[in-house]
Amino acid sequence: MHICATKQDLRRVLAELRTTGTIGLVPTMGYLHDGHMSLVRAAQAENDHVVASIFVNPTQFGSAEDLEKYPRDMDRDLAMLRDAGVAAVFTPTPDIMYHPDAQTIVETTDLANKLMGALRPGHFRGVATVVTKLFNLFQPDRAYFGEKDYQQVAVIRTMVRDLDIPVDIRPIPTVREADGLAMSSRNARLSPDARAAAPILWQSFDMARDLVATGATSDEIKSAIWTMIDREPLARVETVDIQDAITLDPITGPIDRDIVILLAVTFDPVLLIDQCVIPAQKDLT
Ligand code: AMP
């Protein structure tokens, strides 16, 4: 496996790989788990070469503390990618990634600032900008992203459409622990008690599915989820959003189309997000 610390290295390795087939990119911030590896496996099924990046992107973090505390384990990550058969991995530092006078940003103006974007101002601008840079550096045929970060996938799809970036965006279902908690690098920062309580997010989706089946409205489902999670003393609900699964527009009233429930819950100081798509009830459409 090629480990590329600089853009020059990366470009050289990619030019070579490209002569022998298609390239699938898996961008990550490291501290890898099976969710990331499911993206790698999906990429392997569809491409001749799989390449990855490990970069904790400072511009998408709201606070210096959150950035600093983000878990890291480069040696273990590289071993996992090597064992999986990844061809090359890009491991830049922020100084290598960003020009000291960088002044260009990419922003999906509407999508970036609502829902999770309203909770984390600047976050999706940081994501869109770094992913654009990664697409320009790797020029992959396909790029793989987790549906867990549902709004992120929407932002990247919109940006690729609007800027005519020639890459096929492939969303991959969320991989969960046995108790339903979505795998996340941030889970490592949960206290044992918070870790035990965190599957409440997943349990609230079960309840929401039942409520959709009984014809509940969006407001009723939202308030039932809010109440259920609020009962857990370690959890602080930040947002519960019920949106059109395709457009991410808000849904009011009965559930007459496919919806996505977007949850953001803090188990102090760790912000967890999760999502669940629920298909429209046939007798309402
Ligand atoms: P991150 O390292 O958290 O930026 O994640 C890198 C990529 O892995 C993103 O596209 C995430 O959506 C995806 N990812 C993270 N956790 C999971 C999971 N539990 N299941 C599937 N994909 C995931």
Could you explain how this protein is built, in words?
There is one protein chain. With 285 residues, this protein is of the alpha/beta class. It is built from eleven helices and nine strands. It has two domains: 2-172, HUPs (Rossmann fold, 3-Layer(aba) Sandwich), CATH 3.40.50; 185-277, Pantoate--beta-alanine Ligase, Chain: A,domain 2 (2-Layer Sandwich), CATH 3.30.1300. It is 39% helix and 20% strand. α7 packs across α8 (150-162) and α10 packs antiparallel against α11 (218-230). It is globular, with a radius of gyration of 19 Å. It starts with a strand and ends in a 7-residue tail after the last strand. The structure holds adenosine monophosphate. Adenosine monophosphate binds at residues 28-29, 35-36, 38-39, 145-146, 148-149, 172, 174-175, 182-185.
User: Which strands sit side by side, in order, in the main sheet?
Assistant: 1-4-3-2-5-6
Total number of strands: 9
CATH architecture of the largest domain: 3-Layer(aba) Sandwich
- Biggest sheet descriptor: 6 strands, parallel
Give the rounded overall mean pLDDT: 96
Tally of separate helices: 11
User: What is the string of helix and strand elements?
Assistant: EHEHEHHEHHHEHEHHHEEE
Class per helix and strand makeup: alpha/beta
Q: β content, as a range? A: 15-25%
Distance between the termini: 51 Å
Please, what is the CATH homologous superfamily of the largest domain? HUPs
* Shape field: globular
The hetero molecules present are:
adenosine monophosphate
Please report the first level of CATH classification, the CATH class of the largest domain. Answer: Alpha Beta
Number of domains: 2
Low-confidence stretches: none
Radius of gyration: 19 Å
